[in-house]
Amino acid sequence: AAEGSAEAADAIARELRETKSQSVRRAALMTLGRGAKERSLPELRAALGDGAALVRAAAAAGLGYAGEGALPDLARALEDADPRVRAAAVEALAEIGGQAAWEQIAVRAARDLDCGVRWSVADRLAAKKPPDWKESLAALFADSQDPASWDVRVTILNALREDAAAVLPLAERALADGAFSVRRLAREIAGGGAAPAGERSPAPRLPYPLLRREEFYGGAPPHLFLETDAGRVVIELYLDEAPHHVSSIVALARQGFYDGLTFHRVVPSFVAQGGDPRADGNGDAGYFLPDEINRIPYLRGTVGMPKSTKDDGGCQIFVAHLPLPRLDGRYTVFGRVVLGMDAIDRMEVGSVIRRAWVDEFAYRPAAQLAR
Predict the structure, then answer these.
(1) DSSP string computed for 68-91
(2) Considering the entire predicted model, what is its pTM?
(3) Stretch 216-234: mean pLDDT, rounded?
(4) Is-contact 349 206, C-beta < 8 A?
(5) Under a CB-based contact definition with an 8 Å cutoff, are residues 101 and 69 in contact?
(6) Which of 121, 161, 185, 364 is the most buried (most CB within 10 A)?
(7) How many CA atoms lie within 13 A of 320 on its CB side?
């Protein structure tokens, strides 16, 4: 289908109808969109009614390659109940381009309350630069002042920072922003200079003291257990190297925070990422973690903390499939998988964390952890 072959497109369309795997269906829809273009409209249009939100999002993304004939279908996707589908529709419309597509995006941006959708609008405006894109970003900035949309504001400030006339009014307003990442960027743009060396975001207000190694039997490290639909994963947590991250993860696991959440991002030969209550990469637990960058390298099985800028890690985790030296010193390492990398390798987008818990006070050798 990628080469425009009718036979290949027909074969992929058959697979789409017959398979039950969400991952295969999503890949089929994206491939049909890229290769078959207008010819794939019936399959993509039908998939917009699928019961799985990730499949609907893939259908919307595929429609971005189908040309202006897909505009009515994308207008339907913009009204989807799931923000991941609406965000995919925004990105697809930006790929199609043209006045009608950007008008649809503008209407959605004006009324969508979801921070992930607004971020997609800001990102596409900055990348595609349609007519009046700077004015559109300024209007979106004004409408994105809720706490959850802090990354939208960061994205807009960065997109406009080379145009002083456009960005300075926004930066001056953002000097008093409730999000530290936004305030720091605004100060740089408004002429206050970079943050002084050593300045950090405020430490999270944890509902407990930071954990200490003495709290664990024999001073052994705590272990986080993830019972997933791909198998059990056991993570040794590095309390000494990343006390804020480990203390937060332990507290959230104790509260049942991770139970039922998913791995929303799986990139083979890169990472499996999950633990987001929004399931789209934009979620957090209501507070940010200060960076705890250490000298531990990213190897196969290393567990790190995703973030957007400095000191804004949250509740998500990612596990490296392979050594990733380009991540060393950039993202906090707070653990390693000691059992269950085969489960990590089997994960697909949407794999569920059925239950998470911490082996807190009864340390056992690694060989016994899976029992």
Answers:
(1) GGGHHHHHHHTT-SSHHHHHHHHH
(2) 0.81
(3) 88
(4) no
(5) no
(6) 121
(7) 23
